[in-house]
Amino acid sequence: MAGRTMIERLRDPSEKSLGVLLLAPAFLLLLLIVVYPIATLIFNSFFDMRLSGGSGGFKFVGVENYLLVLKDPDFWNATGNTVLITLVTVPGALVVGLGLALLANLPFKRQWPVRLALLLPWALPLAFAGLIFAWFFHTEYGVVNDVVRRVWPGSEPTMWLLRPNWAFAAICLTIVWKTSSFMALILLAGLQMIPKSLYEAAEVDGASRWQQFWQITIPMLMPSIIVALIFRTITALQTFDIPYTMTKGGPGNATETLAMLIHKTTIDYLDVGYGSTLAVFMFLLSLVVTGVYLKRIGRNA
Amino acid sequence: MAQVELRGVTKSYDGRNTVIHGIDLDIRHGEFVVFVGPSGCGKSTLLRMIAGLEPISGGEVRIGGQVVNDLPPRSRDIAMVFQDYALYPHKSLYDNMAFGLRLRKTPEDAIREQVMNAATCSCSTSRCRTLTPQLRNEMRTEIKRLHQRLGATIIYVTHDQVEAMTLADRIAVLSAGHKMQYDTPDAIYNRPAALFVAGFTGAPPMNLVDCTVTDGAADLGGVRVPLPADLAARAAGRSPLKFGVRPENLRLASAAGDIAVPAEVSLLEPLGAETLVTLKLGSTEMVARCPASFRHPPGTAVTLHVNPMHLHLFDAASGAALH
Q: Which residues in B51-82 are b (16+ Cβ under 10 Å) and which e?
């Protein structure tokens, strides 16, 4: 053993070193794409790194950025908007997605048009959906106001994207439309795994359709619902594309999300240190939410 | 009174191909009837039609005298045990058992009493999740006890003819959507009405070989087996024919009235309690159930004895028995 060279040991590794060797590529990759960026982010958040202006600063400021963030009304506004979008669009997409999944699970003669209709919104890029719906909600040329005008002739056109609450509603509606198809796909897979005989047994026992839905479908679908909720919540916390393309965060910063604030601070204002600190807060928010869900899964399993 | 009547019941899924061909069946109140047949014979479909889980394409199903063709399952006052148990995996055992009662708005304390009562008498049944042969036997006993205790009309579907024989008051043998015979286990076994029934029941099943009948005897390719006069008379002028005899009716010892048939031992299969002996009779081969003490090596000439009452003849074309 003592006389073996490095090359000999690599050619004939022990079980332990073989394990280490096999794990190494995955570990290195993880290091490169997860640990390194996060470490850099946290590192930068302790510095004053404003790349604009002549100062060219790269100054260690300790937790100053963190204290500034906590006192920053823009941060609290963006966090509030992000949480609100999450609270509205996640349950919204769940309900709409469940409806779509139940619809797609009906015994249609031809399945593919239904599946295609489900897949299309999902396959559409987020920014694309944002642009399309921005046109739908356009005050003068939008289809939404056109319908409103036809139903209530002579009514004042709503300035959807120029009024804080309406803009918020329009964004949430767009996000629900865009994301419910993904929910529906996961739930459809879950629905198809429920054995048909459970419904037949319930039928013989005398359960109505409504009772079958609550007593069989929902409990049997719970694992799928939780998975769908986790995925959807995490992406909802990172909402960026749709408000960015529809309102740019406006009017004012009424629809600005955390991801948009980080983007603005870092890319537009070139304040890398402060932007990193904001990103750390967003990371923590995602971490807390994921932790809560994971704990729930652990309990269910 | 929960008698079940089927009148010309047919089933077609696509309107062109019929899978159940006009089945007539009368099941008396409190009777235990088993539908038996190979997979794909339509036995489960027929059961599902009686339960209301499958629409009836033609004919009538009556339960307790009432036509139930258009009644949903819940209005037929039936209970059904599914092949895959159909237990609700998210509910506890108690809640599974209480589900039907809750739907019928039974008060919660009455549910409790009924479930606990049922649980104590079927505690061994609940273990039969994976049905090994041993558990199947246990389950069978349990089902039979349950039927004796409840006195309910029971329809049971199986592909296992042993299960059918042991459980049933009457057996309906199905093949390719046709009712082949509907009778007591004894009649099914000893007086099979069709070639299919004869070949499906018994383990090993009835020996069935081609034969011709001339001068009151069946010719098995060189060996002539004298037939009872009435059987020979019915066979006169018919061909092709199948000759049938059950393995346990081919014996080495003779009894009064038996006929003797020369044969040659060809293969031995000792089973412990008995030995299955394959024998050459003329140009045909048959299996006989012999005592475990049977030791004659292959090639030995033996004389078989058979009671002529145990001989069967079938019309090979239609499959109908000639008795």
A: bbbbebeebebbbeeeebeeeebbebebebee
Instruction: State the CATH number of the domain containing residue B176.
Output: 3.40.50.300
Q: Quick check: is B283 in a domain?
A: yes
Given the DSSP bridges, would you call strands B154-158 and B32-36 parallel, antiparallel or unpaired? Answer: parallel
How many of the other CB atoms lie within 10 Å of CB of A192?
11
**Contact B86/A197, CB-based, under 8 Å?**
yes
In one-letter notation, the amino acid at residue A265 is T
Residue spans per domain, chain A: 54-300
Q: Do B72 and A201 touch (CB under 8 A)?
A: no
Closest by Cα among A142, A204, A198 to A167: A142
User: In terms of residue numbers, what domain contains B266?
Assistant: 207-315
Our CA-based measurement puts residue B66 at a distance from the nearest CA of chain A, in whole angstroms, of: 18
> The domain that contains B213 carries what CATH number?
2.40.50.140
Chain A residue at shortest CA distance from B75: A206
Beta bridge partners of A7: none
Non-local CB neighbours of A144 within 8 Å, separated by 6+ positions: A136, A137, A158, A160
What is the Cα–Cα distance from A184 to A197, expressed in whole angstroms? Answer: 23
A218 touches chain B (CB under 8 A): no
Q: Does B204 sit behind a cis peptide bond, omega within 30 degrees of 0 on the bond before it? A: yes
Q: Are residues B172 and B296 in the same domain?
A: no
Q: Please give the ipTM for the structure prediction.
A: 0.73
> A268 burial class (0-12, 13-18, 19+ CB within 10 angstroms)?
exposed
Alpha-carbon torsion, ordered B188, B193, B196, B200, to 10 deg: 10
In chain B, how many domains are there?
2
- Across the A:B interface, residue pairs with CB atoms under 8 Å apart total 53
- Asked if residue B92 is part of any domain, the answer here is no
Place of tokens 């159930």: B289
Q: Nearest by CB to A219, from B52, B90, B99: name it.
A: B90
At residue B34, φ and ψ (nearest 5 deg) are -115, 130
> Domain A54-300 falls in which CATH fold?
MetI-like fold (1.10.3720)
pLDDT by residue for chain A (301 residues), tens digit each?
Answer: 455 677 777 777 788 888 888 999 999 999 999 999 999 999 888 888 777 766 656 778 888 888 888 888 988 999 999 999 999 999 999 999 999 999 888 888 887 888 888 888 888 898 898 999 988 988 778 888 888 888 887 777 777 878 888 888 889 999 999 999 999 999 999 999 998 888 988 888 888 889 899 989 999 999 899 888 888 998 899 889 999 998 888 788 888 999 999 998 888 888 888 899 999 999 999 889 888 887 877 665 4
